[in-house]
Each structure stands twice: as C-alpha cells, then as structure tokens.
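Troubleshooting: if your tokenizer reports a length mismatch, compare your output against this known-good record of 179 residues.
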Amino acid sequence: MKNVVKEIISTILYILAVLLGTYLLITFVGQRTSVSGSSMEPTLSNNDQLILDKISYRFSEPKRFDIIVFPFQYKENTYYVKRVIGLPGETVQIDLEGNIYINGEILVEDYGKEKINFPGLAVEPITLGDDEYFVMGDNRNNSSDSRDPSVGNIRRSNIIGKAWVRIWPLNKFGVLKHQ
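Known-good structure output:
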C-alpha cells in the first residue's frame, strides 16, 4: 500500500512540475501565435504558425526590421505581427511617392511588397518618443500599422516578443529573417 501511495504522489509531483515548467516557458520564454491576414506578405502568410521569442527583449531593445508581436488595443485577444521601421527618438515620414524617411534620410530596405500608396499619419513627420516604435507590414498597401490612427506608435511595454521561428506550414519551417 505504501508503494502505491508513493507512486501516486510521485506522479502528481511530476505532473505539477511539467505544468509549472510549461507555464514558465510560455510566460517568459516563448509563445505560439498565428498570422491572420496578408499584411506581412511575402515574408509571412495567412495562417502561418510562429513561435515568439519573449526573452531576448528582456536583455536588448528591438532593432530596425525586427518582426514583432503586440496586442491590438481595440480588440481583446487580437495580436498584430509587424516589422519595426522607426526606433525611439527618430522622426519617420513617408512622402507621396512612397519613400520612407528616417530623420530626413531615405530608408534603404527591400521588405515592402510594393510602392506605398497611402502614407497615412506619416505624411507628416512623426517624432517617436523614448519608448515608441513605428511599425509597418511588409504588404504596405494592405496593412493596418503605425500609419493608421487605430494602431499608431507602439510602446516598448506593449511588445510581447520577436517572431522567431515559423513552424507551419512545414515546407516553410525555419528561423525568420529580421535584418
């Protein structure tokens, strides 16, 4: 009888340890998320499944071109996946030809799927605060991002993590390119 009780207690403790470990991993290290929509095409597609790296930003700041995940402020349990374009303290502007300017200089990048047709809020210079980031989807003409007043600049405290690995579909499995 003692052996059965010991075995039951041992199994319960093992299950609790696994649950605690899983909780700690999901809360502090990584998290699975799903891409909804086409705003990050061609880099990410609708229904792609990603693993977020939630730990690196505890030791370093997001960098330009990182793909980040943050909550949409007007809809619960809705998260956006976007690319960092502007960093804290910088001034971002998009002209009517679709050029992105950072502190008055054209940003050299090739993530945008096509020429930007709608500069939105960035038609006027936007100076980012000490904890703000300007983000855009790679599919620039089909993305609700920092150009849209409903999204705006993203505060550092709202960034959940960096998109790290695409786990689905399997034929596109791999670590995501940020820089």
